[in-house]
Amino acid sequence: MSSPSCELAPSGPAPVSDQPRLPGSLAKGVKTVAEFLADPDLCIPDYQRPYKWTARHINQLFADINRHKDKNAYRLGTIVFHREGKKRNIVDGQQRTISLVLAIHALVETRINGPQETRIQNPELAACLENLANRMLNPGFNNRLSQSNIRNNYQAIRRIVSRPEVTEDSIAFLLHRCEIVWFELQDISEAFQFFEN
């Protein structure tokens, strides 16, 4: 199975006015993981809680992805944004987003820059991963718990994506057939109310 092309729009998502609207100031849509992570306007605001996912969450995420890899698409969950000027602040979905960012970096390290025998052979897939790694958000955390979990989870993800059963088809499935449902609100209080419901 060949992977779909990874042509990423240079400007990220369509302007808010071009996206479906619900009453009020709500936009919504579905993006593949590659489309979602390539969005140059993604931001994790300072008010977000620490990154608390552990290796247990990472193992569950990858087990779920593996379990559904024969489907046409698999929804990884929902992300809620608050639009602040050009930035799309993540109100809900930070844990999953950071874990996906770590996965892309681990794939580049192990499957593109790693030993020759484990390198991705499909040039389009390799280019897609490198493009994402260079474009996606790069959050920084001062919180020690976040730093520790990021370090530990990155190592857990490296071990997972280094396994022989993580094939190029599996990687293409993650990038192009795993999807994120997203909602974007203009008003921050509405975004938190939407998140809490």
Low-pLDDT ranges: 1-5, 7-18
- Strand percentage, roughly? 15-25%
Q: How many extended strands?
A: 6
Summed up, the helix count is 7
Radius of gyration: 17 Å
Q: What is the structural class?
A: alpha/beta
Proportion of helical residues: 40-55%
Tell the overall outline: globular
Reported for the largest beta sheet, the result is: 6 strands, mixed
Give the topology string: H per helix, E per strand: EEHEHEEHHHHEH
The first-to-last residue Cα distance is 40 Å
Overall pLDDT score: 86
Strand arrangement, major sheet? 1-2-6-4-5-3
What does this structure look like?
The protein is of the alpha/beta class. Helix content is about 45%, strand content about 20%. It contains seven helices and six strands. The chain has a six-stranded mixed sheet. Strand 1 and strand 2 form a beta hairpin. Helix 3 crosses helix 4 and helix 3 crosses helix 5. The longest helix has 19 residues. The chain is globular and about 50 Å long. The N terminus is likely disordered.
Key terms:
197 residues, alpha/beta, 6-stranded mixed beta sheet, 7 helices, 18% strand, globular, disordered N terminus
